[in-house]
Amino acid sequence: DALTRATIQNELQRICGQSRTTVVLITNDVDEGILLADRIVPLSAGPSAVLGPSFAVEIERPRNKRALNHDPHFKEIRAGVIDYLMTSAARKRQAVTTELVEPQGARLEIIA
């Protein structure tokens, strides 16, 4: 739930801040990535995913989730990551289009 997620995010920030160790976090939430990370490397869509471009998160710590929504750098990073993910997904959809032919000669296209 949302409260547990916020608690875990706060605890992860505290642990990383104290230990100063490198942590790899995998998330599907772009906002969570920006809140917690110093660098975001999105994956392209699909089972043959590859690493995308690196986005540096140079926002002062400690970061406040509410305050981030008003930060222009947050908005810029978020837009860049989402644009990459959407473009990657669109390319994936184009590549997966398959054409089938039914016995009567009718054509059927499947887009996955």
Characteristic terms for this protein:
two-stranded antiparallel sheet; about 10% strand; mainly alpha; about 110 residues
Describe the protein.
Helix content is about 50%, strand content about 10%. It has about 110 residues and is mainly alpha-helical. It is elongated. Strand 3 and strand 4 form a beta hairpin. The strands form two sheets. It has a two-stranded antiparallel ribbon. The protein has a two-stranded antiparallel ribbon with strand order 3-4. The longest helix has 25 residues.
Give the gist of this structure.
This protein is mainly alpha-helical and 112 residues long. It contains 4 helices and 4 strands, in the order ααββααββ.
Write the topology of this structure:
Blueprint: H1 2-19, H2 30-36, E1 39-40, E2 55-56, H3 65-68, H4 72-96, E3 98-101, E4 107-110
Shape: elongated
- Helix amount: 40-55%
Tell me the major beta sheet. Answer: 2 strands, antiparallel
Uncertain segments: none
Our count of helices gives 4
Assembly state of the chains shown:
single chain
Strand order of the largest sheet: 1-2
Number of strands: 4
What number is the mean pLDDT? 85
Query: Radius of gyration, Cα only, in angstroms?
Result: 19 Å
Beta content comes to 5-15%
User: What is the end-to-end distance?
Assistant: 30 Å
Order of helices and strands: HHEEHHEE
